[in-house]
Design a protein that fits this description.
Elements lengths: L7 H12 L3 E6 L4 E6 H12 L13 H4 L1
Antiparallel strand pairs: 1-2
Length: 68
Amino acid sequence: SKTTRISYHLLRALDTLRESKQIIIFQSGKNMDVYVLDKDTYHAKAMENCLDTTTYKTFIHFPLEELL
């Protein structure tokens, strides 16, 4: 495997991003791309996706017992 060296300053910057309570870092998509978003944008996008009725169906009653 190929080893990549990362500078001390880059490692510190990555640690600072990871520790931040204001952003979310996640992987998504076919290529598992890494995204960095502020929490408000992340939550707005998530709600936008959840409300997309062309992709998702809203259940009034979820048949949990029937599925089990």
